[in-house]
Amino acid sequence: MSRLATTGIALFVSILGVALVPAAQAKQIAAYPSPGVKVASPTTQISFRGVKPRALGPIRVRGSRSGFHSGRIEAHSDGNGVSFLPAKPFYNQERVTVSSRRNTFAGTGKRSRHFYTFATGLIVPKTWRPEPQVPARGATPPDWTSYKTFRYKVPDVNIKTSEPGANDGLVFFAPRTNGPMIVDREGNLVYYDPGLRITDFRVQNYLGKPVLTWWRRAQVGNRVASFYTILNRNYKVIKQFHAGNGYTSDPHEFTMAGPDTAFVNGFRTVIMDLRRFGGLKRTPVMDNVAQEIDLKTGLVMWEWHSIGNVRINETYMPIPRKITRPFDYFHLNSIERDKDGNMLLSARHARALYKVNRRTGRIIWRMAGKKSDFKIGKGMYFAYQHDFRREANGTYSIFDNGAGGPNLPRVSKRSKGIIFRINQKKKTTRLVRSFYHPEGILSNSQGNTQVLPDGNVFVGWGDKKTCTEYNRKGDVLFDLWYSARQVTYRCYSDPWVGAPPASKIAVKSTVAGDHSRVWVSWNGDTRVATWRVLAGDPGALAYAGQTPRDGFETTLPVDGHPAAFRLIGIDADGKVIGRSKLNKLGDLTN
Q1: Residues of the chain with CATH 2.120.10.30
Q2: Which of 117, 142, 322, 474 is the most exposed place for a label (fewest CB within 10 A)?
Q3: Which residues of 59-78 are buried (b: 16+ CB within 10 A; e: fewer)?
């Protein structure tokens, strides 16, 4: 037995002062940070999974420099785990020993042990950022559309292809300097919230109901904060949270993992000696962190670190010899659960896909990159990829950029969406279908491949501001281009019923010769089929006509010059679903 192991066991017994439950009889549980993690956050909680709160038993936590740590235990909302929240932070660069009398820990060897260790890293102050980003300002797009009832210029949308067989789901995207947008399949605006800097805008399910989700960066006082947001069908924020354990919330991933949990990724900069890789002694390096967050409690249910699991020399990025920003050697951009419960990760800068043991954090296999365990099938070569997903039918999908930008070599002539199969025993892959854009798009950054419920495939082309739907044969059914000064990270097609409050109904009226003209819109609404107008004196409004909804903004002519108007929204069943505020002739009411 090693000196370290002997010391650890002696320490454990002396702390608890009671006999251990024999390892063969003890329950094995998972713990995070996982055994052997080298750069945990000094403000980390210690999470235990696979154990009910009352079955955890005594836990002792000791830092090699900070000493013993008291704290409190909080249960995870699913009843299958707890987190220990230390009363004080750990020190930078210290070893932490976690001990349990009743339980042993996964990842501590064949003879599972009652204790394990991890280490904290040398953390760089949060003033370091990989690429400083300021919040959006609702920037004017190069080509835009204006509305009488909406004061912002809206990026133009051009439907280049629309064929039978395409879905009727709405299209969701979010140009960075403009804000989240929803449009219908004719290119009509449904929803626009300018001034929000967000990514990964889409429909997901939360507590059994459809919601909108995104990552957002915003100015909070004198600082810039990053967090994840969930909105209900009324466009009301019902949940905001951030990555756990002190990590900065990263914009690349926010995927609901269950009814009330989410996969997110965070990052923090640590100092590392990269001389063995041709770099500097003190190099700021980004540790990419994947987490599952319990949204009810905010506790961390699972955590994985790139540093310590993936060596620096697996990167395709040049090792820095001059420090200008933290070194992003890994660039985690998607997190997915495989059918066996283990985790699937995509790392753009390693040009590889990873399967990770959820309980221990250890890598099960690598696909592509410098240390691939797989024989890559014909037509399957990919690089600088995004959005690694397991589909419901057992296939897998990615978006293959094939290029990494101006400072990295181009690997392919065209980007593509890929559907493929994996034989995990034989370590082989087989291409099912590739999806290329008819104009030969090569996307240097971002992008996604979404398999729709009917088997069609929706591809977002990242920095090329284009979204395309294909049938299973690869035929283009729908193609959309939008005008914006910056890109959208991902592009999705989903059904959505938006029901904003009636206070959001906007009305503009004006004199038009011997009659009046009224414009009405309801930003975010998807239900109105007909607009009815009441007109007259403010206290004596009467029916003055109605017309079918016409896209985002509908125009209604009214005889004469009434003093006031009220607009009423009616759904396809004839039900009144919203009434505007009173609008006086010549005013804009919103």
Answers
A1: 144-494
A2: 322
A3: bbbbbeebeebeeeebbbbe
In this structure, how many other beta carbons lie within 10 angstroms of the beta carbon of residue 13? 16
**What's residue 140's pLDDT?**
74
Domain 502-589 has CATH 2.60.40.10: yes
- Quick one: what percent of the chain has pLDDT higher than 70? 94
The residue count of the chain comes to 590
The pLDDT confidence band at residue 126, using thresholds 50, 70 and 90, is low
The answer to whether residues 173 and 181 touch, using CB atoms and an 8 Å cutoff, is yes
Residue 135 has pLDDT above 60, yes or no: no
Which segments of 43-142 are extended strands (E)?
46-49, 59-63, 67-68, 71-75, 81-86, 95-100, 103-105, 115-119
Q: Using one digit for the tens of pLDDT, what is the confidence trace for 345-399?
A: 999 999 999 999 999 999 999 999 999 999 999 999 999 999 999 999 999 999 9
Superfamily of chain region 144-494: TolB, C-terminal domain (2.120.10.30)
Q: Any idea which residue has 């008819």 for tokens?
A: 438
Q: Which of 378, 274, 372 is nearest to 326 (CA)?
A: 274
Q: How far apart are CA 92 and CA 281, in angstroms?
A: 18
% pLDDT > 90, the chain: 86
Report pLDDT for 137: 53
Domain with CATH 2.60.40.10 in the chain: 502-589
Structure tokens at 517: 């003209």
Whole-number Cα distances in Å, 256 to 52, 179, 213: 23, 22, 9
